[in-house]
Amino acid sequence: MAKQIKWSLKAKNERSEILKYWYERNGNKNYSRKLSQELRETVRYISEHNYLGISTDEENVRVAVCGYYMLFYEIKEEVVEILAIWDNRRNPQDLRKK
Q: Could you read off the pLDDT tens digit of each residue along the chain, which spans 98 residues?
């Protein structure tokens, strides 16, 4: 049975920043819409298959890949919480600082 999804404030802000960046860079919403749809698809898969992602060093925290992005999420009793979105093209050392 699919679990409910909860977005952390951090993840919501990161998603908004990513979509805004692509809108401003491309001058239209086409790619932002496509990316938003891909993120929704990945989140839907996560809600249905909680252990789909790769486990991390943090207990109950996993990561799912969506194109150039990684979605970090935590499996809780009632919900799956999206914790953060990371662009894989960024310096990986910056991820450790977050």
A: 789 999 999 999 999 999 999 999 999 899 999 999 999 999 999 999 999 999 999 999 999 999 999 999 999 999 999 999 999 887 666 665 55
Structure tokens at 92: 């990986």
4-7 and 69-75 beta bridge pairing: unpaired
Q: Which residue segments constitute the domains of the chain, with CATH numbers given? A: 4-88 (3.30.2310.20)
**CB-CB neighbours of 42 under 10 Å:** 21
User: Which residues, 6 or more positions from 41, have their beta carbon under 8 angstroms from its beta carbon?
Assistant: 66
Q: CB neighbours (10 Å) of residue 80?
A: 22
